[in-house]
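Supplementary Methods, section 5.1.

A reviewer requested that the exact input to the structure prediction be made available. We therefore reproduce it here, unchanged from the version used in the analyses.
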Amino acid sequence: MDEEERVLVFILGFVIFIFVFFVLHYNLGEDTNKKAEIVAVADGTKLYSAFLSGSNEKLEFFYYKKAGDGYKLDSKKADMVTVFEDSETPYIQMNCKFFIFEMCTIDYELHVPKGSIVRGTSLDLMGRMEEKG
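The structure derived from this sequence is encoded token-by-token as follows.
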């Protein structure tokens, strides 16, 4: 084997090693789902409409999650959360779909008991006009 062939074999072996390392180390193509039990949740719509009207702020879900013997306040942007009324015990789940190395697309599922979502419609144009003038 001449010098060129040895270099080519070395480069090919190195590329295969790097590929195998990343596949084994980072589990490419596998989903990561992390679940946390929550004890209270609010969507902040009253706060949002009262204080953030006309701003670029995004609506958030606020919740307390179990943290050891206590609870920790956390929040997620509403456009990243899908809510499901399908669980007796409320929890939030992070879904991470890997697409390359450690980078992934993340979304959240908020699972709450049936009846947790308050349904209704309110068109309060008069209240808005009173606020402005």
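The two ends are 88 Å apart (CA to CA). These observations are discussed further in the main text.
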